[in-house]
Amino acid sequence: MATIYASARSPQNERAEPVQSGLSARRLAAFSTLAIPFTAAQLPILNFLPAIYAQQFGISLGALGTIFLLERLWGVFADPLVGTLSDRTRSRLGRRRPWIAAGVIVFALAAAALFFPPAGVSPLYLGLALFTFYLGCAMIQIPYLAWSGEISGQYHERTRVATFATVASSSALLLVILLPALIDHLHLGDDRLKLGAMGGFVLLALLPAAWLTLRAFPEAPAREASRAKPLGPLATIRVIAREKLLLRVILSDLAVTFGQGVRNTLLLFVVSIYMGLPEWGATLMLSQYIFGIAAGPIWMQVASRIGKHRAAITGELVQVAINLGLLALTPGNLGLLIALTAAQGLAQGSGNLMLRAMVSDIADQHRLKTGQDRTALFFSAFSISMKAGMALAVGVALPLVGAAGFDPAAAHNSPTALTALLVTFAVGPALAHLCSAALLRGFTLDEAAHAQIRRELDRRAAGAHA
User: What's the half-sphere exposure (Cβ side, CA atoms, 13 Å) at 264?
Assistant: First the structure.
């Protein structure tokens, strides 16, 4: 039987004891709280910070674009490095806790610099703060994702862990997007207040959330995890390239994130310009997050019946149908738009949730084959696919609709340009989700196969300790 480490004793005295019951919902909720400030910081930095720094501090769009592009390249280096070092860390506190605790400090300092900037801000200041911020993100996210897959070795329990984190993330997005909406009603146009309010929420939530997460579960004793051999950059690429199932999950997640990114990039343009309903833009965006909170538990139940990869395929095919339904939108047709937005919210987390839970299963299979535990390294590759999907979506969607003649600043757009906007908004994500489903077809690591892997790993561990 797979072992679940459910002791909640202090890190100094912990000796994890195996139990056969499911993980405590209270402890899972505590463990997931770190996702709230972490996720809450991502949306304003991507959606609000560039415009505010351009308008308030005079940083050119070219400089902003260069800084954010270099940050993506920095993540390609930083994420695998943190993953490899976390896998090799041995300390009294475990492999994951020291990195998360140090990352929280780096993250907090950089977030304070970004959300509460001084009067005179240069591109160098923004670049250093942003690079430090994403270093802190990597130090938190990669070990946290790896740890979330190690709390339980059971197939469906890992889906539960991912579901709790998904609900926490959706709640954080809902809370943080409410702040600028409220400020617009009270102090219209006060961008510095918006930035400070969102930053204050992140910083106030960070320390309590980190405390709850770090104490929610102990880590498995170090003796039960093999020490991964050090790898250079080329060797790291070769290890990941040999894991065919991991590559399929990474590419599937890239497609999911790309589809979501295209939709989010063009949503406000479609609502305000194509539909002619600018007053509904923020409300519809909020509704997606509200329904997204309910999506996690729904898809967790689906996965418990048909398995993770089949649930992911089902969710992606549902997304295809919903996005193709957007082609039926006509200007002013608010009822259909609300219905499809609600359906989108209920379906949107299916792929992300299942794919994340599947990475830990693949890491178990790799450990059985090679004797090397590279869970955090595999999650770092997964993290890169998420970032690449978002960057690719913006880089493809905006130039594509621009080439078709769409201009968001124009008083009037031609029918051809508006049709191109709608088609890109609907068909682009539909094709991406279809690709995601196709990549998972015939996925061999199901519940039965994973149970066999865990039995063999447990047998080896028992033999090593005999």
Answer: 23
